[in-house]
Amino acid sequence: MKRKRKRKFRLAWLVLAAALGLSTIIPVRIGIAFHQTAVPQVIFVLGGDSQRMEFAAQLWQSHKDLDIWVSDCDSNLNYNRRIFQQFGVPNRQLRFDGRATDTVTNFTSMVDKFAGRKIQHIYLITSDYHMRRSKAIATIVLGSQGIVVTPLAVPSWGDRSESLVRVLRDCGRSLLWIFTGKTGASFNPRLLVKISKYNG
Question: Which of 43, 106, 141, 157 holds its CA 20 to 30 A away from the CA of 182?
Fold first, then answer.
């Protein structure tokens, strides 16, 4: 019994030390990224709502040098593409990724692509009620890789901001991803049903 307690105690201290380390490292990496790249290099849109696509397309009208990156479930991508085409966004400036199954995987599935292209600063577009959670996840997942976000919220007229419990839950999942490379999405049975629908 004493050995088990000692192991748990050590594990708790390791987790605490790692969390404290990240709470120092991530802000430093974000600060460096912002200093090096003060202006966003791409527009990043979270899927789930066509209004977000329209907002991004309208933003692009005054930032035509920027590519638009979209993270959504695979079944929505063709519909999203048509929205951008209606606004005159050329296909060569559109980047779609259909691997996301939830908000955490919106970021974890894209972070390597951003880092691989030396992207250090992005416009983050999602609905206003969804922004607090999205920004918290982005700070951990993207911030850990030295990528800063400038959030742009799409008005939703009446939707309530997501609960602090959901924000904290997904912050925990984001930290899990940093340490293990997994988000814990597979532990959610409702999510498994959703994924099976997306995959056909």
Answer: 43
